[in-house]
Amino acid sequence: MLTIAIPKGSLLKESIKVLQEVGLDFSAFLEPGFRQLQIEDPTGRAKALLVRNGDVSVYVEYGQAHLGIVGYDVLREQGANVAHLVDLKYGGCRMSVAVQNSSPYKSPLDLPMHGRVASKFVNCAREYFKELDLPVEVVYLGGSVELGPITGMSEAIVDLVATGNTLRENGLVEIETLFYTTARLIANPLLYRLNSDGVADYVDRIREVVAVS
Ligand code: PRP
Question: By alpha-carbon position, which residue is closest to atom 17 of ligand 1?
Fold first, then answer.
């Protein structure tokens, strides 16, 4: 049966909506108190796995899910062996370098050599500073990254910015954007090539829905 890994969190609602538009109903995941992690569409044509954002590509890469929906930021950070198929256009935000308002750093090149940069996205951050040829120590934090500069643990952060409220409320300011990100449809390359369980047909329909939206 066609299986789709859907991310918990901010992409969930829109992901369920786009799947509804191609006739697959996994809206039960949105019901308050609903705890099941694997459900079938009422028509019995497909099932969905509800997983953490960072785990979507794992299920797709290992073939337990034909398809997955995940942010480009996570895909880029993980470098998983999956087929990137469709930009779904929602979940837009940017990966940015930010510092404290009061800091003297107006651009990443102002940061001190061998200074510290905190991030959940350490690979994206390392790649960016390598391209800049600025040696910094990138320190992994699992969340609330803004506390890095506030506490003095790091000079800067690399993190996702959507509304900018979190930065503002914590006295931080963006000084550079690394890249923009949106939700992406990914597939297991082999299952997609074989059109296993009609996966390629669903991809075509999702592509059409996104194109007219
Ligand atoms: C993300 C990100 C920022 C915040 C940005 O965190 O890491 O902290 O959202 O959104 P904003 O610009 O709209 O304020 P998330 O909510 O995923 O929580 P986390 O810090 O625990 O990762």
Answer: 143
Interval between CA 14 and ligand 1 midpoint (Å): 18
The DSSP call for residue 41 is: -
98 pocket-lining for ligand 1 (C-beta < 6 Å): no
- Asked whether the beta carbons of 87 and 179 are under 8 A apart, the reply is no
Q: 185-201: per-residue pLDDT in tens?
A: 999 999 999 999 999 99
What range does the domain containing 172 cover? Answer: 93-180
Q: Across the chain, where does the E strand assignment appear?
A: 2-7, 38-40, 46-51, 67-71, 83-87, 93-100, 116-119, 137-140, 156-161, 172-181, 183-187
Q: Is 117 in the same domain as 58?
A: no
What's the rounded Cα separation, in Å, for the pair 113 and 18?
Answer: 45
| Contact of 55 with 78, CB cutoff 8 Å | no
Q: Record the tokens describing residue 188, joined without a space.
A: 């297991």
CATH number at 56 reads: 3.40.190.10
In this predicted model, what pLDDT tens digit does every residue of 23-77 receive, in sequence order? 999 999 999 999 999 999 999 999 999 999 999 999 999 999 999 999 999 999 9
Q: Is the CB of 159 under 6 A from ligand 1?
A: yes
